[in-house]
Design brief:
The chain is 32% helix and 20% strand. By secondary structure, it is α+β, with helices and mostly antiparallel strands. The strands form 4 sheets. The protein has a 5-stranded mixed β-sheet with strand order 3-2-1-4-7, sandwiched between helices. Strands 8-11-12-13 form a 4-stranded antiparallel β-sheet, with no helix packed on it. A hairpin with a 2-residue loop joins strand 5 and strand 6.
């Protein structure tokens, strides 16, 4: 207040009268700075101080690894902690320069980007399974496809591609993705060993697969942003009963939110640009066979094992190595070495179940039973044909030999 009054021309005597202070006090206040200069604090000595010249010399030689420098200082007698070395080195490191990039845009129908994402777990068919999200984004229109699965193997990799092509109305010219095992079995530099089924699938639908360079996820930034969009817009607060309900909600979200919003880059709706994508039509050819293919050896009791359950095959193929195919509709088919179908079952999802077809064991019955005329078969009840398992063997009572000897003795 004294300084403000004096700045407006008020005399020292008047300031003293208004403030109630002595003129000497007012005069001293006007001459004293508002904030006294802070006294420099005396820095406490650090254990690393004697080793600073050595650190500066090593950093000048290009050594900035704090763990390595800490080990060297310990050899010189340093008794401090590694954190002091890290703090000292960090202060002398050059900040990383920002990497400039150019947004890469593609022509209509030229490219799609695809990726898997992990979304926790889900109880599926009574078993807790990992939950995956398959996301595909068209490069030009930004139209997105989303599907949740409980497996990320080659069969579901192909199925989700096919479902996305149906949703878009066609296939793009190129497919950009990571070096995941369902697409790339091995990569050494520019030499790529493709998964044979994926390569055949790409040839069937007329697109060329392109894996990103390792550790360059930003190459497929469109689908990466799509995954972030799913996590931030669709997933928060979501409730669902099962996998089918989750995918129904995902489809509704695609149709009513994701693909009808004004995209931040194109300033248009993805659905509005989709008709101009110029995709390769797929409706003129049958769907690619995406069945899961594996091999099993049948047991002596004419059963093969698949996912903890057992399925019967004809008795003639007992002990043989057979091909097992499981479709998306949970149909299990068994083929022989020549590729002929020999058994067909509906997949069961419990554990320890036995799916047995009686006719598979007909060849094991006596000829008289197999050749019973139809007229006689209608008069007598046909026997139930099924394999005999260890649990079906009746219990046999053990008796002492004396009892059998007594039965053979004839009274005189």
């Amino acid at each position: 207040m004294m300084r403000e009054l004096h700045r407006h021309g008020v005399s020292i005597s008047e300031i003293a009268r208004r403030t109630g202070h002595d003129r000497k006090t007012v005069r001293k206040t006007l001459k004293t700075p508002l904030q006294a200069a802070a006294k420099p604090r005396r820095r406490k000595p650090r254990k690393i101080d004697p080793y600073v010249p050595y650190l500066e010399q090593r950093m000048a030689a290009g050594v900035f690894n704090a763990r390595k420098l800490y080990g060297e200082l310990q050899g010189l007698g340093y008794s401090g902690k590694e954190t002091q070395v890290r703090s000292f080195v960090q202060a002398h490191r050059q900040p990383p320069l920002p990497v400039a990039t150019v947004r890469f845009e593609t022509a209509p129908g030229e490219q799609a980007q695809v990726d898997w994402a992990h979304f926790g777990s889900i109880v599926h068919q009574g078993v807790r399974r990992r939950l995956y999200a398959f996301v595909m984004t068209l490069g030009w229109s930004r139209t997105m496809y989303l599907e949740f699965t409980v497996a990320a193997d080659i069969s579901w990799w192909l199925r989700c591609h096919l479902h996305a092509f149906r949703y878009f109305g066609g296939a793009p010219q190129r497919m950009l993705h990571d070096n995941l095992k369902t697409a790339v079995l091995e990569r050494r530099g520019s030499r790529i060993h493709w998964h044979p089924r994926y390569l055949d699938f790409a040839d069937y639908y007329g697109f060329s697969p392109h894996p990103c360079r390792p550790y360059r996820a930003q190459t497929k930034g469109k689908v990466e942003r799509g995954v972030c969009y799913v996590r931030g817009n669709f997933w928060p607060g979501l409730t669902f009963t099962d996998l089918t309900d989750l995918n129904h909600q995902a489809l509704a979200w695609l149709n009513n939110v994701a693909n009808v919003r004004i995209h931040g880059t194109t300033n248009e709706q993805p659905f509005a640009r989709l008709p101009d994508e110029q995709l390769t039509a797929i409706h003129d050819k049958p769907d690619y066979d995406t069945a899961e293919i594996t091999h099993r050896r049948s047991s002596r009791d004419c059963l093969i094992s698949y996912r903890g359950n057992f399925y019967s095959v004809p008795a003639a193929y007992a002990g043989q190595r057979l091909q097992v195919r499981v479709t998306e509709l949970d149909e299990l088919t068994v083929l022989n070495a020549d590729g002929w179908e020999i058994a067909h079952h509906r997949l069961v999802h419990d554990k320890g179940e036995r799916c047995v077809v009686a006719s598979h064991y007909a060849a094991l019955l006596p000829p008289s039973v197999r050749s019973t005329p139809a007229s006689q078969a209608t008069q007598t009840e046909a026997p139930q044909i099924r394999p005999v398992f260890p649990g079906d063997i009746p219990h046999v009572v053990s008796r002492p030999l004396s009892e059998y000897q007594a039965l053979l003795e004839v009274p005189a």
